[in-house]
């Protein structure tokens, strides 16, 4: 194999597919990036068997062939090359020479034949949205997936398509994040659970512009994302996602309008008194026109008042401050509305248009301590 | 005690003195920042018994007093306060209230009486240089101090003043870095060894402008740096610094002029084939008009040619690539000159004005392997 392409194209391709290289694996071939120049295009592929990424880069093929190169070493080399044309040449024993200007690297690759290509998925009826929208909706929900594998479904996100609505849901047993997106066309009803890791990697590699789209294809077992000249194929998580409808009652006893930035900075300040692993709640004491936030730990105590608009009953309620911070950080509104029922029922942060709902379970706290 | 000062002043002061708070200590009081408002100024102090930093900040004292507050907690709180006036108030039992706008923190401090003040050093005849110069000379030499305590002197830097010349030297047994600075006045001959840690912290807290100075005072056991309203006092390292004069022979067999950026990028590229802890040398094969750089490791091999101007003999010589990278990074010249004698004698990188000398010992390498 012999091919020539610019360092910047090569680097873009390597950075894109590298996201699918497993950090730990017993199969050495999976630690490689496959360079496939066997036909008339240069295709880079990486695959950890759950998630596969493939991208086509511009360049000249002087001799067809394929080679698998250790992803870490190859990407280190590419990154450090001068900004000029790169020549990659291999021989029958997989010895690979990477030349750029006067720099010449020799490494040994592996046979491309041993590589596991990403599965071929038939693509029909793409669901289309802007790269920006997809990236945003991931950012706005990904923080509340579960990080432990006890319930595999909770490590993914529900993508539910109903006509021209996309609903994305994540939950970890203490909180639920829901975003509703308006699509430009209507589609058949579909419901899949996408692994959190896939979404995290996707949101790193899509440029996220508003004027370029990503096409999404769903099959029984796989989801495919296509954008620019990159294809991402991921397995889906099998099983029935948790029913959230019954949690989403619209009854409330207390409705609070509050400045988002003030609430966020206050909770952020309060958490510095809480050491990692120490489960001190932040306590909200909601009265007419005022929310007093209090936290107390063995380091000290903190309290602060924030002006609010309140409807309904006064309430004294405690939360894990991190859950509030996570949700408030991804809401762009200047003012947010909280809905509460009682100190043991979940609090909702939601807007009037129904574009987002963040549900946070309260925690018990010892009243005497305050 | 009760005092009022702006969050930004307080934060600047806290960040400055925090550099002298020990990370590990058995004396809890040393983990504190002392706020001393016992006279007519607000003074913050931290002291790890080797290095002490004191700074005066603007503010209003409403009630005189002193208090010692846990440095980590106090600086976390200050950092997260809104950008407004901060009120710090303490009572007889060292309970401390920190209030800013509507946020109110309560923490418990310690008696300021238990705090170890920084030693009083008589200041006469300051050595004066711009903050920029001091910061630069530290950056240009600090990387070659020794990081192990076997030879305490090598963990510091020699500051030698001879008339209007300041010479700064650091060495670790494999290399020597020397910088010569022209001072604006002449001073009595002095020679001290300053702990590396002191210099690292100093270079973090001096703003480093060219139009503001730092005054340096030397005594038998201490060095004092004074700038803006901050005083840094450090112990010196006792003992006789290694004599470097005999190493600095000016004989050479090979003289090489080379583009610094090209050499640095090439060595930087080469090192990606070397894993941490793996002692693979970079080999320079110097011939007429050309330097070939080669490196070989179990990952692969790399070679690259660089145009040079050469005087004298050809030479094949190997070096620890890190030592070359460290030295080249802090040289601002576009072109550098290397002086070599033979493959077992040190290489010098130095300029004609004598403002810097970097001496690097070569390493043995197996000729056959190349």
UniProtKB/TrEMBL annotation, chains A, B:
UniProt cross-references to SMART domains, sorted A to Z: POL3Bc
Keyword match Ion transport: no
Molecular function via GO: DNA-directed DNA polymerase activity
Compartment annotation: Cytoplasm
UniProt keyword Iron, yes or no: no
SUPFAM superfamilies from the UniProt entry: DNA clamp
Annotated ranges, domain DNA polymerase III beta sliding clamp N-terminal: 1-118
Domain DNA polymerase III beta sliding clamp central: 129-241
CDD domains noted in UniProt: beta_clamp
Domain annotation DNA polymerase III beta sliding clamp C-terminal: ranges: 247-362
Subunit composition and interactions: Forms a ring-shaped head-to-tail homodimer around DNA.
Family from the record: Belongs to the beta sliding clamp family.
Purpose of the protein: Confers DNA tethering and processivity to DNA polymerases and other proteins. Acts as a clamp, forming a ring around DNA (a reaction catalyzed by the clamp-loading complex) which diffuses in an ATP-independent manner freely and bidirectionally along dsDNA. Initially characterized for its ability to contact the catalytic subunit of DNA polymerase III (Pol III), a complex, multichain enzyme responsible for most of the replicative synthesis in bacteria; Pol III exhibits 3'-5' exonuclease proofreading activity.
Protein name, as recorded: Beta sliding clamp
Species for this entry: Maccoyibacter intestinihominis
Gene designation per UniProt: dnaN
């Amino acid at each position: 194999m012999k091919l020539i392409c610019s360092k910047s194209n090569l680097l873009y391709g390597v950075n894109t597919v590298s996201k699918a290289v497993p950090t730990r694996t017993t199969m050495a071939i999976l630690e490689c990036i496959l360079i496939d120049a066997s036909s008339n295009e240069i295709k880079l592929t990486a695959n950890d068997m759950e998630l596969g990424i493939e991208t086509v880069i511009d360049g000249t093929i002087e001799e067809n062939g394929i080679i698998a190169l250790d992803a870490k070493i190859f990407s280190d080399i590419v990154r450090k090359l001068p900004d000029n044309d790169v020549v990659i040449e291999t021989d029958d024993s997989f010895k690979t020479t990477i030349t750029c200007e006067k720099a010449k690297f020799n490494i040994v690759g592996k046979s491309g034949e041993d590589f596991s290509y990403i599965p071929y998925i038939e693509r029909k009826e793409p669901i289309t949205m802007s790269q920006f929208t997809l990236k945003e909706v991931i950012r706005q929900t990904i923080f509340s997936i579960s990080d432990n594998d006890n319930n595999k479904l909770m490590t993914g996100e529900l993508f539910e398509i109903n006509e021209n609505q996309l609903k994305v849901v994540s939950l970890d047993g203490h909180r639920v994040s829901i975003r509703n997106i308006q699509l430009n066309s209507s589609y058949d009803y579909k419901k899949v659970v996408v692994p959190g890791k896939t979404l995290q990697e996707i949101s790193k590699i899509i440029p996220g512009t508003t004027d370029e789209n990503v096409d999404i294809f769903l099959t029984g077992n796989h989801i495919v994302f296509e954008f620019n000249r990159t294809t991402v194929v991921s397995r889906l998580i099998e099983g029935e996602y948790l029913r959230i409808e019954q949690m989403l009652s619209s009854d409330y006893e207390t409705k609070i309008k509050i400045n988002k930035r003030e609430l966020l900075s206050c909770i952020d300040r309060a958490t510095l008194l809480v050491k990692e692993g120490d489960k001190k709640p932040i306590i909200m004491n909601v009265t007419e026109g005022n929310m007093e936030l209090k936290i107390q730990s063995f380091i000290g105590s903190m309290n602060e008042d924030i002006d609010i608009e309140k409807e309904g009953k006064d309430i004294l309620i405690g939360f894990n401050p991190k859950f509030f911070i996570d949700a408030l950080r991804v809401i762009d509104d200047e003012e947010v509305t909280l809905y509460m029922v009682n100190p043991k029922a979940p609090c909702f942060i939601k807007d009037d248009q129904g574009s987002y709902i963040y549900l946070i379970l309260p925690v018990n706290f010892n009243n005497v301590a305050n």
